[in-house]
Design goal:
The protein is an alpha/beta fold. It has 13 helices and 10 strands. The chain binds S-adenosylmethionine, 6-(5-methyl-2-OXO-imidazolidin-4-yl)-hexanoic acid and iron/sulfur cluster. The site of iron/sulfur cluster has 8 residues, from loops.
C-alpha cells in the first residue's frame, strides 16, 4: 500500500517507480479518487476546466499506419486526403472557438513530419492565431530541432505528440515509426522551449499493465507534459481497430486519477471519445482530476459532443471555463 498522505501532498516528481504506479492502480476506487482530488486541489481550482478547440488543417492521406487512425492512407475509412486549409479559414475557426470560450487552439495535420513548404504555411497560421491572444498548439508529426525552433519563433506555445500506449504494445499499433522516435521528438520540442502536450489512447486492446507503463513513461520524462490528453479510442470503420472491445468506464476513470496523481501540476485532458461517454462518466473523470476538454462539434475528423450539451453539463456540475493565461490576454490587448 503506497503512503497516501505523502502522495496527497502532491510534490512534483519525475522519479516515479513503475511499481508505485501499479500500486496506485490497485487502490480501492474510493482511496484512488480521494487521493487524486487532494492532489488536484493543490494545483487547480476543481471547478475550472481548460477549453481547447481542435481544427484539422491538413486532413487524411497520411503515410503512417497507426491502427486507430481514420487519416492513415493504409486504410479505407472514407476520409480522403485534402490540401491544407487556407489561412483565412483557420483564423475564422480560431476566432469562433475563442468566442465560444476556448483559450487554446490546436491545429492538426496528417503528416509523418512537415515538409519545408508546409512548415511556412503552418507558421503563418500559428502567428495569426497567436495574435488573437489564444494559446497555440500544433500536432504535425515528427520534428527536428530546426523545425521545433522555427515553430516556437512563430508563436507556438504547445506541441502535441502522443506516446499513445506503452513501449511494449506500440509495435502492435504502429509499424512505420518507433517509440524511440516519438520520445526523440518530445525532447526536441522541450529543448526548443515549447510546452509538451503528450498522452495516449485507451481501448486499443492493451492491458492494464500497458496503462501503468504508459503513465510511467509520461511521468518520468525530464519534465511532466503541461497537458496530458487521455483519449478513448473512437472506433472508426475501415481501421484495424474498428471492432476493438470497449474499456470499462471505471477503468478509464482510474487512468485519469493515476495520471492526476503522478503529474499533479499538469492539465489532464478528457480528449477523444467523449461523444460515447455518459454525463455521469465524465463527471467521475472530472472528480478524478481531469480538467481540460476539447470543445466544438468536431475533433479532427470524428464527432465531439454537441456544444450546448457540454455547456449544460458544465453548468450542472458547477464548473466553468478556465480564464485565459495572462500572457495571452496581454497579447490580445496589444493586438
Ligand atoms: N500526425 C500527427 C501525429 O500522429 O502525431 C498528428 C495528428 S494525430 C491524428 C494526433 C493524435 O490523435 C494521435 O496521436 C492519437 O493519439 C489521436 N487519435 C487519432 N485517431 C484517434 C482515434 N480514432 N481515437 C482516439 N484518438 C485518436
Ligand atoms: C489528442 O490527444 N487527441 C486529439 C488531439 N490530441 C490532436 C485528436 C483526436 C482525434 C480523434 C479522431 C479524429 O477525429 O480523427
Ligand atoms: Fe498519421 Fe497521425 Fe493518423 Fe498516425 S495518428 S496515421 S501519424 S495522422
Amino acid at each position: 500500500m503506497p503512503n497516501l498522505e505523502t502522495i496527497q501532498a502532491g510534490r512534483i516528481r519525475t522519479d516515479w517507480q513503475l511499481n508505485e504506479v501499479r500500486e496506485l492502480f490497485a487502490l480501492p476506487f474510493s482511496d484512488l479518487l480521494f487521493t487524486a482530488q487532494q492532489c488536484h486541489r493543490r494545483y487547480f481550482d476543481p471547478t475550472e476546466v481548460q477549453i481547447s478547440t481542435l481544427m484539422s488543417v491538413k486532413t487524411g492521406g497520411c503515410p503512417e499506419d497507426c491502427a486507430y487512425c481514420p487519416q492513415s492512407a493504409h486504410y479505407d475509412t472514407g476520409v480522403d486526403g485534402e490540401h491544407m486549409a487556407p489561412l483565412e479559414e483557420v483564423v475564422a475557426a480560431a476566432r469562433n472557438a475563442q468566442a465560444n470560450g476556448a483559450t487554446r487552439f490546436c491545429m492538426g495535420a496528417a503528416w509523418r513530419s512537415p515538409k519545408p513548404k508546409n512548415l511556412s504555411r503552418i507558421r503563418e497560421m500559428i502567428s495569426a492565431v497567436h495574435a488573437l491572444g489564444m494559446e497555440t498548439c500544433a500536432t504535425l508529426g515528427m520534428l527536428d530541432r530546426e523545425q521545433a525552433e522555427s515553430l516556437r519563433a512563430a508563436g507556438l506555445d504547445y506541441y502535441n505528440h502522443n506516446v499513445d500506449t506503452s513501449e511494449s504494445y506500440y509495435p502492435s499499433i504502429i509499424t512505420t515509426r518507433t517509440y524511440r522516435e516519438r520520445l526523440d521528438t518530445l525532447q526536441v520540442v522541450r529543448d526548443a522551449g515549447l510546452q509538451v502536450c503528450c498522452g495516449g489512447i485507451l481501448g486499443m486492446g492493451e492491458s492494464p499493465e500497458d496503462w501503468a507503463e504508459m503513465l510511467h513513461t509520461l511521468a518520468t520524462q525530464p519534465e511532466h507534459p503541461g497537458s496530458v490528453p487521455i483519449n478513448q479510442l473512437v472506433r472508426v470503420p475501415g481501421t484495424p481497430l474498428a471492432d476493438a472491445g470497449s474499456v470499462d468506464p471505471l477503468d478509464f476513470v482510474r487512468v485519469i486519477a493515476v495520471a492526476r496523481i503522478l503529474m499533479p501540476g499538469s492539465h489532464v485532458r478528457l480528449s477523444a471519445g467523449r461523444a460515447e461517454m455518459s454525463d455521469e462518466m465524465q463527471a467521475l473523470c472530472f472528480l478524478a482530476g481531469a480538467n481540460s476538454i476539447f470543445y466544438g462539434d468536431k475533433l479532427l475528423t470524428t464527432a465531439n459532443p454537441d456544444k450546448n450539451d457540454d455547456l449544460e453539463l458544465l453548468r450542472r456540475l458547477g464548473m466553468q471555463p478556465e480564464a485565459p493565461t495572462v500572457a495571452a490576454t496581454t497579447r490580445a490587448a496589444a493586438g
